[in-house]
Structure formats: structure tokens, C-alpha cells
Specification:
By secondary structure, this protein is α+β, with helices and mostly antiparallel strands. It has one domain: Cytochrome P450 (Cytochrome p450, Orthogonal Bundle), CATH 1.10.630.10. It is 48% helix and 11% strand. It has 16 helices and eleven strands. The strands form three sheets. The protein has a six-stranded mixed sheet with strand order 1-2-3-9-6-4. It has a three-stranded antiparallel sheet with strand order 5-11-10. Helix 11 crosses helix 12. The longest helix has 32 residues.
Length: 397
């Protein structure tokens, strides 16, 4: 069989419509395949589960510092807001990474699960109240995107009048279109003003915690850690909620069980993390020197991404008509190794609670558009619905 030598695009509507078909084609190249992640920008994508683990755990061979790579692409590339170097835990190694990550993990540890669950439930009910009487809703725009946004912006003390701007900015930069740079700039401006204000007048919020943390971050380091946490906290959680709701509404194995309680919500979310991970391709790494990795020769400084979605498909436990079965922790949706997502537990709690609360209020939800006609947001990194339109019997307030 002849293998196509040109990089395969993973950033347009064709890829968004059927990424699994693209991943199968990429496997013809072996564990590591050439891809195009934006017009004219190439990378290597790891599609093999074991190869992904090997990369994610090998800090001697691979670095997270993108500066050498980014000198090879235009400075105005729409990929820069996602992959361009900045002083954060995402782009650092060793002691520097540990210092930045400590601020984030210490901040996340401040939130007691029962308090967080109560806040999410209260927010969910306020959001549902807005559309319950209408008999229809877009569960992405009106629910899945709004719920984690409210929680995160409340934690960080984002001014009420700027919360919508923060959410729109995060959405724009993740999609890596021509507007990505402007989106990141808007987010940066909001956070920069917040940090300056907290230096003068600390409050009881996460922005102040980052500013006053004992490791002593400077202003730029604080701004970058906050923007990273907002992006990494909002986008994946929004997509996880949306993808789980779609699975519950369309998968015959869940028929009649959308409103069956916590275990059903947890199972659906776990299956999404295996089969439709909210961030499908990321974990950017760069070899420190020329290497041969799982049969592929890779030059120092080359961009290598991990496809959580493709790798998971090799290792996912089977599901079938006899019941729902899926592993709890072996999937790569949260990455692995020293850069594994530190927000896994609160993200899961938010998503599970969001699904449960919706089911407790609206017991007859059904799609108002055929599943095969739903559109997915294009982009190389995420797996996210544009909209999730549903109908139901209106409920009086």
C-alpha cells in the first residue's frame, strides 16, 4: 500500500466532521504521522498509545519549550496563542515547571469538593431557569459554555462586565483562526488589569492567591499562569459537558437513562474521555536533539503533538449491548507524566454535576436537529460541538 507523503490536515471542517477516519489514515504512517495543523504549518502527531506514554514521560529527550520551533513559523501565525512560548507551566521544564505548577495546584486545592459541587448546582439551576419555560435551548451556548465560565470567573474575581469577553476570547484562541491573536490579546488585557489591581488591593479570590503565593511570581508570570488556568479550565470542561450530553441523547445504550443519577452521568463522561476527549490533540513537545522515535526520525526542535483521541482508540475497553464498561484512569484525555492536567478532579466534578442537574430539571430532552447534522468546531486541538439544540416540554418557573 502506498502511504501519502504529504502532511494530512487536521484543522479544517473535513477533519472536524470525521476525525476518526483521519486518525485511521494517519496510522498507515506508523505510530508517528506528519500532519498540517494550520495552513503551511506542519507537525508530527503521535497516534499510538504506547508511543504517547513514552513521549509524555520522557523529560530527558523532550522539552516543552517551544521557542526554537516558533522561530520557524510566522510571528502572526494563528497557532501562536496556543503554542507560542510564554513563562507558564505549559511551556517549562524541570524546576521552573515545578515552581509554576505549584501555584496552580495549590490554588486548586483551596476548593473543597462539597462547596464546589454546591456552587455548580446553584449555577446550573440559574442557567436552566433562563430557558426552561421556552421548551427549547442550545445546550452549548446556554449551558455547557456558561456554567464553567461562571464558576471560573467567580473564583478569579473577573469583573462581571468582562466575563463574557473572557469566555469569547478563550473560544477564539482555541480555534486557532486568524482572529486567535486578537482573542488572546483581549484575554491578556483583562487579566493584566486584574493583576495590577490585586497588587494594590488583594481580595479573597484566586487572582489574589496567584499574586501573593509564596513562590513569588512576578507580574508577567502571574498573568500568564492565570490565563493558562482560565483557558485550560474553561475550554475542556465546556467540551466535556457538551460531548457527554450528546452521548446521552444519542447512544441507544443510554436510552431512558439520562436522568438515572450520578453513576449514569459518570459513565457517560468517562466514555467521552475515552472516545471523544474534549482536547483531542495537544501536549506539544520538542526533541532536545535529533532522535529516532518509534521508527520516525525527528529533528531537534520539531513540533510533536500527542493525539489523545487516536491513542485512546487503541486502548479503550470494549462497550456493548450487555452494559457500559470503561476504564477509570488509563485514558490519556488528561495527558500523563509531569504535565498531566492538574485540574482533573474539579473538572470531573463540574461536568458530572452539570449533567445531573440538567437531568433533574428537564426529564424529556431530545435533539431538535438530527445528530448527523450537528456541526463540530474546526481546529486542530479540540473536539467540540458548535451547537447542541434540544427541545422539551416547557417548565413553568
Amino acid at each position: 500500500m502506498t502511504v501519502e507523503s504529504r502532511p494530512t490536515p487536521i484543522h479544517g471542517p473535513v477533519f472536524a466532521a470525521d476525525p476518526k477516519l483521519v486518525y485511521e489514515r494517519l496510522r498507515r504512517h506508523g505510530p508517528v504521522a506528519p500532519v498540517e495543523i494550520a495552513p503551511g504549518v506542519q507537525a508530527l502527531l503521535v497516534t499510538d498509545y504506547q508511543a504517547a506514554l513514552d513521549l509524555l514521560r520522557d523529560t530527558d529527550t523532550f522539552s516543552k519549550d517551544s521557542r526554537a520551533w516558533q522561530r520557524t513559523i510566522p510571528p502572526d501565525s494563528p497557532l501562536m496563542p496556543m503554542l507560542g512560548y510564554r513563562p507558564t507551566a505549559m511551556f517549562s521544564d524541570g524546576e521552573t515547571h515545578a515552581r509554576y505548577r505549584a501555584v496552580i495546584t495549590d490554588a486548586l486545592a483551596l476548593f473543597e469538593p462539597h462547596r464546589l459541587q454546591r456552587q455548580v448546582a446553584e449555577t446550573a439551576h440559574r442557567l436552566i431557569d433562563r430557558f426552561a419555560g421556552a421548551g427549547h435551548a442550545d445546550l452549548i451556548a446556554e449551558y455547557a459554555r456558561q456554567l464553567p465560565a461562571f464558576v471560573l470567573t467567580t473564583w478569579f474575581g473577573v469583573p462581571q462586565e468582562q466575563r463574557a469577553e473572557v469566555v469569547d476570547s478563550i473560544t477564539g484562541l482555541i480555534e486557532s483562526t486568524a482572529q486567535a491573536g486578537a482573542s488572546y490579546g483581549k484575554l491578556l488585557a483583562v487579566v493584566t488589569a486584574m493583576v495590577a489591581e490585586r497588587r494594590e488591593r488583594p481580595r479573597h479570590d484566586l487572582a489574589s492567591w496567584y499574586v501573593t503565593h509564596p513562590v513569588g511570581l512576578d507580574d508577567d508570570e502571574v498573568i500568564r499562569q492565570i490565563t493558562l488556568t482560565l483557558i485550560a479550565g474553561h475550554e475542556p470542561t465546556t467540551n466535556l459537558i457538551g460531548n457527554a450530553l450528546l452521548r446521552l441523547l444519542t447512544d441507544a445504550r443510554y436510552a431512558g437513562s439520562l436522568f438515572g443519577g450520578a453513576m449514569t452521568a459518570h459513565q457517560a463522561i468517562d466514555e467521552v474521555l475515552w472516545h471523544e476527549p474534549p482536547m483531542a490533540n495537544l501536549s506539544a513537545h520538542y526533541p532536545r536533539y535529533d532522535i529516532t522515535f518509534h521508527g520516525r526520525e525527528i529533528k531537534a526542535g520539531s513540533l510533536v503533538l500527542v493525539s489523545y483521541a487516536a491513542a485512546n482508540s487503541q486502548a479503550a475497553p470494549p462497550t456493548g449491548d450487555g452494559g457500559l464498561r470503561s476504564g477509570e484512569s488509563a485514558h490519556l484525555a488528561w495527558a500523563a507524566g509531569p504535565h498531566a492536567c492538574p485540574a482533573r478532579d474539579p473538572a470531573l466534578l463540574i461536568a458530572i454535576t452539570a449533567v445531573e442537574q440538567l437531568g433533574s430539571r428537564l426529564s424529556d430532552l431530545e435533539l431538535s436537529t438530527p445528530a448527523e447534522e450537528l456541526l463540530w468546531r474546526p481546529g486542530p486541538f479540540h473536539r467540540a460541538l458548535m451547537h447542541l439544540p434540544v427541545r422539551f416540554e416547557p417548565v413553568a418557573g
